[in-house]
Amino acid sequence: MMKLNARTPPNDPPAVRVPDGKPAVADQPRLAGRKRPRFDTMPYLFILPCVLFCLILLLYPVVYSLTLSFRQATVDTFVSGDMPFNGLIQYQAALADPVFWRAVINTVLFAFFSILFQFTIGFLLALLFQVNFPLKNLCLALLLIPWVSPVLTAANIFKGLFNEAGPINQFAHLVGLGPFPWLANPAYAFPATIVANIWIGFPFNFVLLYAGMRSIPVDVYEAARIDGAHYWQRVAKITLPMLKPVSVAVLMLGTIYTVKVFDLVWIMTGGGPANATHLLSTYAYQVGFSLLNFGEAAAIATLMVLLVLLLNLLQLLLRRA
Amino acid sequence: MNAFEALPRWWITAVAVIITAILLSPFYWVLLGSFMTPAELFATHIVLIPQHWAVGNWSDAWSRLWPHVRNSLIVSAATAIGTLLITAPTAYSVNWLKPRGRQALSSFMLVTQMLPAIVFVIPLFIVFSKINLVNTLFGLILADMTFTIPFALIMLSAYMKDLPYELVEAALVDGASQIRAFFMVVLPVTLPGLITVGIFSFLIPWGDLIFALSLITEGGLQPLTLELYKAVGQYGIEWSFLLPGSVLTAIPAVLFVICASRFILAGVTRGAIK
Lengths: 321, 274
What we know:
The complex is a heterodimer of chains A (321) and B (274).
Chain A: H1 2-6, H2 22-32, H3 42-68, H4 75-80, H5 89-95, H6 98-128, H7 136-143, H8 145-148, H9 151-161, H10 167-174, H11 186-214, H12 218-226, H13 231-242, H14 244-260, H15 263-268, H16 280-290, H17 294-320
Chain B: H1 9-33, H2 38-41, H3 55-97, H4 102-114, H5 118-130, H6 137-161, H7 165-173, H8 178-189, H9 191-207, H10 210-215, H11 224-230, E1 232-233, E2 236-237, H12 239-273
Antiparallel strand pairs in B: 1-2
Helix pairs in contact in B: 3-6, 3-9, 3-11, 3-12, 4-6, 6-9, 6-12, 7-8, 9-12
C-alpha cells in the first residue's frame, strides 16, 4: 500500500480532484438563509471512496501500464526489481513482429464481421418483436441467455460444436461433406471464433434496437400506412432513420466490446493454430504472461488503446459523412 | 404485401419460437451433451437424446467443482457488495449533490470502460506480486472491481436521475441528516436499480477469466471458470467434465434472466441509450 501511494504519479489527472472544503466556505452564506442543511462537504464525502478507488486501482494501473511500455520488463528485470527505461524498443519490437500485424488485422476483421452480423440479426429480430404475439416475453427473455451467460460457457459450447467429431461435422456428414478440421485448421479457426462471438453478442444488439424501435411514435407509422407505404418502405424510410441515434450507440458500444474480446478466443483456440486466430488482446496476453515480456505486452496494450480510439473516430467521421 | 403484420398472431408466435429455438440450439447441445458419454457425444451420427443418461458426469463434476464454486461465490458476492457500497453514494452525489469535478469523474469512468482488460491485468499483476496480493481472493476481488465499478456507476447514475428528490428534501426538512436521508430514503427508493446493478456486478466476476488466470495460480483458491479452463489440458479435453461444468457456470445468469428479464431490459437500455 505504501509503495502504491509512493508511486502515484505526481502529474495528477484533471479527472478526479477532491477540492475538499473549498466550496463549503463559498456556499456557506448562501445556504444559511435556506432550509436546506449544510451540503458543503457532504457531496465530497459521498464520492470519496469512489475517487480513491479510481486513483489507486484505475488511474494508477493505466499510467503504470503506459510507463511500463517504455521499460525493459522481462523475467530478469522483474525479479531483480529495477526495470530500466529503454525508450521505444518495445514498440519497435512489436511493430516489427508479423504476428502483431496479423493480430491487428484479425482484431479489425473480427470486430467488423461480428458487428455486421450481430447488428443484422439483432435488427431483424427487433423488427419481428415489434408486433405483439403470445409468448413474446418468454422468447425475449430466452434470447438474452447467450449474452448474459459467462463467455466461458459459450466458448466451451462452440469448442464442442466445432470439434472434428462434433455436431457441425455430424450435420456436414449427413449431406456428404467434411469432416472439416474447424479449429485445427488456420483457415477455418478464425471464422469459427467469429461465429461464436456473433452468437454471444446478437442479444445485446437485439435488446437495444428493440427498445429503440419501441420509442418511435406509432402515429408516424400510421400516417405512412394511410399514405400507402408498404411494410419494408416504412422500415427503410421511418424505422432506419429514426433509429439512427440508437444504432450509432449500439455500433460504438459493439466496437468497444468486440475489440476487448479475450476469453472467447483464448479458450477456443489460444490464438492458434499457427497464430491464425490471435487478436491483439490474446497476443498481448501471450507476450506478457507466456513469454513473460511485460514491457512489450504493455506496448501492445497501448497500441490497442490507440486502435480503439481510431475505430471510434472512424465511426464518428462516417456518421458525419 | 404488408408482410407479417397481417398474419394471425399465433403464426408470428410459431415463427418466433422456431427462430428462438434455432438461436438457442447450442444450449440444447450442451445441456443434453452433459448427460452423454464422450462416445455418444462425438459419434458418427447425430445423437439427439442420450441413450443412457450419464448422471455420473454431473455428480463427478459437482464434487470436483464445489470448492471452486465456493471461491466464485465469495469473490462475486464480495465484488457486488463492494461495488454497490462504492458506487451508490457516488451516483447519488454526482446526480443530486453536484460536487465539483463530477463531469470529470463520469468521463473518466466512460473512458475506463473502453480500455481493454490487458491494460489493467499487467500492472495489477506486477503491483499485487510486490504487495503479496497475488493468490489472495481479496486481490481478485479488487481486480474484478476495476471491471464492475465504472460499469455500475454509469448504470446506477441513470437510475439515480429518476429519483424523486422531493422525498429527500422532505426528509431533510424533517431534520434528517444527509447521510440518514441517503440510507432511509435514497436507497429504498432506488432499490430495483441497486438490485439490477448488484446482480450484474455479481455476474461479471462470476464469469471472469482473465484476472483469475493471471492473479490466482494456487489451485485451492481458483474460481470456477479457471478450474474449467484447465480441463482443456495437453492430454485432450475432458468433455464429460467440461460440459456439465459449463452448464453449471451459466446457471446464475440463466436464473437471473428468467426471473428478471424486464429489469435487465430496463437497465441495459437506460445505461446505454440515455
